[in-house]
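Case study 2.
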Amino acid sequence: MFLSTFEKQLDAKRRIVVPQDYRAALSGPVDGVFLFPSIRSDCLEGGGQALFDRYGAVADELEFGDELRDSIERNVFGEMQRLSFDTAGRITLPESLCEQYGLTDWVAVVGLRDRFEIWERDAYRAQRAADRERARAGLAEMRAQQRQARIGGAA
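Prediction:
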């Protein structure tokens, strides 16, 4: 599992050290990570074979030739980079992906259980604040609906 958030500084070659816990979670047939532009957020998304397989399964739910399937496959697999770890546990972020998301200095590496994201640090800080408010409001609404269902079910 990928947990926690780490702030890391890119070096001059666009390398970052992947947290040791993340490297341990990635142990398997691929010595590295799959990395691609996130579909949902303005960041990079990464993970191991399980994430690769998950996106494949999502695409496979759609008929061959379906426009949505094509869009998912182009945006995930067509943009995906397989990055290997060097001896220090670093990956080198592709220049084109760094330019796309303004990754020039400090980045936030955010664990999301079966995947992680790499954000420009200040962009992530703004996203984190918006996410906190959305989570608070959404959780309160969900709890109110659950209470209402219990009350309505008891009547």
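The chain has one domain: 5-121.
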